[in-house]
């Protein structure tokens, strides 16, 4: 199962492949994750900052700077039905991850989550399939009483 969007465009009578933007890649991956039976939930996680000006009841004007998300946060966060965290950083072909993004994905992976750098939807399909196959053998979790 997979959702692949193949786009072609014609410019000056020459065909070329449309290079998807990160936003288009994210949208395609989110559509796939919504249909994937192994995914419990997945959402786009926006990061950034904004400033605004507001006026108090007393009439004083103040500026407020608000940061949302955190440095290194992936584009998509979710959970597999197996209970594992899912973190996906989307990059267009040739795009590079930042050190903070790599550090976050490494933390997810080191703690038994699935961390993916995806340049297309197929990357996510393959990663989920490989991840779940590698964990098919049962794991006994005890409270230390045995």
Strand content: 25-35%
Helical residues, percent: 25-40%
CATH fold call? Trna Endonuclease, Chain: A, domain 1
Shape: elongated
Total helical elements: 3
Give the domain tally.
Answer: 1
- Using the 3D structure, state the CATH architecture: 3-Layer(aba) Sandwich
What is the topology?
Layout: E1 8-11, E2 14-17, H1 22-35, E3 39-44, E4 48-55, E5 61-68, E6 76-80, E7 85-90, H2 99-110, E8 114-118, H3 121-133
Parallel strand pairs: 7-8
Antiparallel strand pairs: 1-2, 3-6, 4-5, 6-7
Q: Any descriptors?
A:
single chain, 146 residues, alpha+beta, Trna Endonuclease, Chain: A, domain 1, two-stranded antiparallel sheet, 3 helices, 32% strand, disordered N terminus, disordered C terminus
Can you give a write-up of this model?
There is one protein chain. The protein has 146 residues and is an alpha+beta fold. The protein has one domain: Trna Endonuclease, Chain: A, domain 1. It has helices at 22-35, 99-110, 121-133, and strands at 8-11, 14-17, 39-44, 48-55, 61-68, 76-80, 85-90, 114-118. It has a 4-stranded mixed beta sheet, with helices on both faces. Helix 2 (99-110) links the parallel strand 7 and strand 8. The chain is elongated, with a radius of gyration of 20 Å. Mean pLDDT is 82; it is low at 1-16 and 138-146.
Give a quick precis of the structure:
This protein is α+β, with helices and mostly antiparallel strands and 146 residues long. It has helices spanning 22-35, 99-110, 121-133; strands at residues 8-11, 14-17, 39-44, 48-55, 61-68, 76-80, 85-90, 114-118. It has one domain (18-133): Trna Endonuclease, Chain: A, domain 1 (3-Layer(aba) Sandwich).
